[in-house]
Amino acid sequence: MTGKLSLQRVQAFVAISDHRGISAAARALGVAQSTVSSHLQQLEGEVGAVLVDRSAPSLRLTEAGEKLLEYGRSLLALADETLDQVARVRRAPVAGVLAIGGTTTATERLLPRLLRSFLDRYPDVELELHVANSSLITQKVLSGELPLALVAAQSEQPSLNATAAGCEEQVVIVAGDHPLAGQQVEPRLLRGTRMLLREEGSTTRQYQVDMAQRWGIPRTQASTIASTSAIVAAVAQGLGLACLPRAVAEEALLLGRVAEVHLDPAPPARPIQLIRLAARPLALVEELFIESVREERTS
C-alpha cells in the first residue's frame, strides 16, 4: 500500500458500482474501457485489497469494495465542495455541471422550461439530465447518486427537502372518434373500458388508480404501458382511456387524435417538487438552480 489515493481512480470505481460494470462506467465517464479497468487495478494496488469479486456472474463488490464505496462517495463530494467553495470566492463566471433527475411527465414541459431559463442566465454550466419514473429517480437522490430531481409527487421522505416548482394539469382522454369525445360523461357509460396505466413505481400510476376508484367506472380492465407517450398513442388507436398530464397529451389533442372526456370529479392538478437530500451541502450551481426555480414559481 503506497499511502496515496487517486481521486480519479476513486471516481472510476464509484462509476463502476453505479453503472454496474466497467463498460457502462467507461461510457458514462467518456473514456476507454481499458482506462477504467486500469484505474480499478491501480486503485486496488493503492488500497491493498481486491474491490470487485471477479468470480461473480454480475458485478459484486467485496467487503473492502463496499467500504471504499462508502468513503469514496464522501471523498468525491468533499472534492466537489472544495472546488465549489473556491469558485465562490474567485471572480469568474458560474460554471460546473448541473446534474439533475426528472420524472417522465415532469420532463415533458416544466423541467425543460426551468433549465432553459437557468442556462440562459449561466451559459457556462453543463447539464447532465437523468429521466426515470418517480421511484427510481427518488432512490437516486436518496443514495446520493443525484443531487437534485424534479418529481410529480409530494415528498414523504423526512431526509429530503422539497421546493415547490409548479403543477401538472390532468386530463382524461379517449380516441378522437370516440362517441363520447368532448362530453361530460357518467361513469356507467364507460362500462368495460380498458384503463391504460403507467408501470409500478410511477406516481402517475398511483394517481391514475386513485382516480379510477373515485370514478367507479363499472367493470374496467387495466393495462400497463411504461411510457406516457406510448399511452397517448394507444388511446389514439382506440385501446382505452387514460388520465395523463395535459402537457403529454396536448399535441394529440390539437391534432384530434385524442379527445377529452369530462368525469366528476375532475382530476386535480398534481404538484411538482424539486427534491434534494437535506443533509447534503449544495454546490453553487445547485443553489443557483433552486433560486431560479423559486423565482420562476413566483414570477
UniProtKB/TrEMBL annotation:
Residues 5-62 form the HTH lysR-type domain. PROSITE patterns: HTH_LYSR (PS50931). The keyword Ligase does not apply. The keyword Transcription applies. Keywords: DNA-binding, Transcription, Transcription regulation. InterPro entries: LysR_HTH_N (IPR000847), LysR_subst-bd (IPR005119). PANTHER family: HTH-TYPE TRANSCRIPTIONAL REGULATOR, HTH-TYPE TRANSCRIPTIONAL REGULATOR GLTR. Belongs to the LysR transcriptional regulatory family. This is LysR family transcriptional regulator.
